[in-house]
Amino acid sequence: DACAGHEGNRLAELVATQIRSISMDPKHELQLPRHGWGIWPKSAKQPVPFLPQEAKVFLDKDCLQDGQSWLAGFVLGLAASLVVVPLLSWTEDDRGSLGELSHIGVDGFDRVDNVLLELMLALALRDEPGTATQAVLPVLVGQAWNSADGGGFEAFPFYKLARLSDEPSMATNALAGQILRQQGLSEVKVQAVMGLSVKQVVDEVLRNQGVQASQW
Predict the structure, then answer these.
(1) What's the CA dihedral at 210, 103, 188, 206 to 10 degrees?
(2) Are 54 and 19 in contact (CB under 8 A)?
(3) What is the pTM of this model?
(4) In percent, how much of the chain has pLDDT > 70?
């Protein structure tokens, strides 16, 4: 998932559980689209336990098929998602999903970054007519803290975003382009996505209304 370490894994599970719980709470009066609930597609493993009337929440650790290519399963899950909810963290020592992104471009360093790839694909699919994806809702996560009374997260360090590279991650962008071509996007749109810098991708995601993690 998009956070680092035990706290990040725990938060991802909590977010998924909360979405599923809220979707069944009568006081919220949610009306999920037909393919947002019910029978799971064969391309994903149904989480256990699961009730047919609750929202289908794709969490990779629960929903990827055993023995399946991680990338193939990830792309299928993302392309079928109505709302993509990336957990974007920046913690001490530049760890966490966005903290790790700050290393790309330093002294020529580059690699395929799965979080950056997810963000690029989510934005492109959201803007493509006819795709399932309708929105991107980022969850921003600062440094975790613990005490005798519980735990939580400090405020997200927005000031650190200026350190993200103004150049593209060539490795990540090339893979994003390959996947988007397979998803049927035009070459013009593919090239536009492949030209985005690391900072441009994150800035575009953060233009969407999101939330900050606080206490657990």
Answers:
(1) 10
(2) no
(3) 0.86
(4) 92
